[in-house]
Amino acid sequence: MGPRGPGWNNRERNKYSMDLQNATNRIAAQGELVTKIKDEVGKVIVGQEKLIDRLVLALVTDGHILLEGVPGLAKTLSVNTLAKALGLDFKRISFTPDLLPADVVGTLIYSPKTGEFSPKKGPVFTNLLLADEINRAPAKVQSALLESMQERQVTIGETTYPLPKPFLVLATQNPIEQEGTYPLPEAQVDRFMFKCLVETPSRSDERRIMERFAQQAKAPDVAAVATMDDILALRETLKEVYCDEKVGDYILDIVFATREPDKVKGLESLKEQIQVGASPRATLCLNKAARANALLHGRAYATPQDVKEIAHDVLRHRILLTYEAEAENVDSDMVIDKILSTIPVP
Q1: I want to staple 192 with a disulfide (CB 3.0 to 4.6 A). Which of 13, 66, 222, 255 is the partner?
Q2: Are 300 and 240 within 8 A, CB to CB?
Q3: Which residue stretches of the chain have pLDDT < 50?
Q4: What is the residue range of 329's domain?
Q5: Is 269 among the domain residues?
């Protein structure tokens, strides 16, 4: 809480104000770094500002992203370009039905000369891992990736190896073609901090894309404008972003409305549409993502508007709808819209 209570004296108020000002100055300096990163990525990627924002948010919050969109929307190019702008290692795995867990995490190789087994690390040992068409791989492969996402480590044989820092999984799935796919387990879906819907560019953006690539023989070179230490410093700065108790209550009101909508006036109809509400991990992700959104906007404090801006991406994959809702063509975004428009903003 801020210096509003009756127990606060002038010295405590002055100290709080000074700490807040110092944090604001540090956050403003980090905001310049974020702007440089976005500008560098913008040399290659036209439009998709929201996608780039979410990629940077994921880096700051150390969270994974599930990207859903039709092919050809520059999902892979965006991730690759961001990796170059940050000087990070980037690898891509095309998930297919015949993929094996060893193809992702690695395996033990036997050497006839020495008679010993040596580890061969898989592509998961990287900073940014693009899991392309993740729902095309069978359950064993998805479970192998689960340890990497949650524990930031991989077990090969009897030895556990830590993954590099930072480590992010950016997975894509095609919402249209569902033949030969394996739905992601709910436990794995919940590990993704964000689920972003990548939309087609506007007509003006698509014209810029057409003109740019018609005039250039190759994509512009992207320079590394940040380092791994800069990303880790951003994460440390995130700890200084303040979240007021009222904003925390607002987050709890939203999450609990997904679980007990019948207890909120105006949301009683959602009781028949929501099968399972958001988990406690959603509360933590909303808090962290809201503070990170404030950081990206150069503020040392989170607001209810920060919560609203990231609510859909944090909640849409954590709300399971009933058959009745699906029959009425109601999706999770519609449910979130109704919750946000009904819950009072502090």
Answers
A1: 66
A2: yes
A3: 1-6, 8, 16
A4: 241-342
A5: yes
| Segment (H or E) for 107 | strand 106-111
Paired tokens of 309 = 């801006």
For residues 255 and 108, state if they share a domain. no
Q: What is the pLDDT of residue 285?
A: 93
Which of 273, 275, 277, 276 shows the shortest CA–CA distance to 330?
273
Which distant-in-sequence residues (6+ apart) come within 8 Å of 268 by Cβ? Answer: 261, 262
Count: domains in the chain: 2
Does 222 share its domain with 287?
Answer: no
DSSP run (H or E) holding 153: strand 153-156
> What are the pLDDT digits (tens) for 123-152?
999 988 988 888 888 878 887 887 788 888
Residues 202 and 93 occupy one common structural domain: yes
Is 279 within a domain? yes
Q: From CA 262, how far away is CA 270, in angstroms rounded?
A: 7
206 CB neighbour count, 10 Å cutoff? 13
- Asked if 177 and 274 sit in the same domain, the reply is no
| Helix/strand/coil for 214 | helix
Distance CA 193, CA 310 (A): 10
User: Do 76 and 202 have their domain in common?
Assistant: yes
Rounded to 5°, angle at Cα 152 from 151 and 158: 75
175-189 confidence digits (pLDDT tens): 766 666 677 777 778
Beta bridge partners of 119: 108
pLDDT for position 9: 57
* Pairwise CA distance, residues 31 & 15, whole Å: 24
As given in the structure block, the two tokens for residue 317 are: 């994959």
Shared domain for 55 and 176, answered yes or no, is yes
Strands 320-321 and 274-276, by their bridges, are: antiparallel
Q: Are 295 and 234 in contact (CB under 8 A)?
A: yes
Same domain for 206 and 282, yes or no, is: no
Count other C-beta atoms under 10 Å from residue 101's C-beta: 17
Return phi, psi of residue 70, to 5°. -70, 160
